[in-house]
Structures are given as C-alpha cells and as structure tokens.
Design goal:
Radius of gyration: 19 Å
Number of domains: 1
Order of helices and strands: HH
Number of helices: 2
Shape: elongated
Helix content: over 70%
Distance between the termini: 54 Å
Strand content: under 5%
Length: 62
C-alpha cells in the first residue's frame, strides 16, 4: 500500500462523512418545513426559519 492510496482512501472517507452530514442537514430542514406547515398546519413552510418560532418552541419545552 503506497502513500498515494492511503491519501486517496482518506479523501474518500472524508467525502463520505461530508455527504452524510449534508444529507442529514437537508433531511432536518425539509422535515421541519413539512412538520411545521403540513402536519402542524401552522402556515407557510418558510415560517419555520423565523427565530420567534424557535424561541416559542424552546419556551414550550423548558
């Protein structure tokens, strides 16, 4: 095993991890938009990014 294959394996591993993180973030964003607007029936999907909504959610939890 040469150093080139080791570097190549490391780069592929890092790319896999980054892709997984991006997919998880995208699923979280889409899930919150669907959950807020469709399931919750609260309004526009983009309203979920309003900081006041998140403050209300945190106040409700704590």
């Amino acid at each position: 095993m040469t150093w080139q294959t080791v570097i190549k394996d490391i780069i592929f591993y890092i790319l896999k991890v980054l892709i997984a993180i991006l997919l998880i973030a995208a699923a979280f964003i889409v899930g919150t938009m669907i959950g807020y607007s469709v399931v919750g029936g609260a309004g526009e999907p983009m309203d979920v990014f309003n900081p006041e909504i998140w403050q209300h959610i945190l106040d409700y939890i704590f």
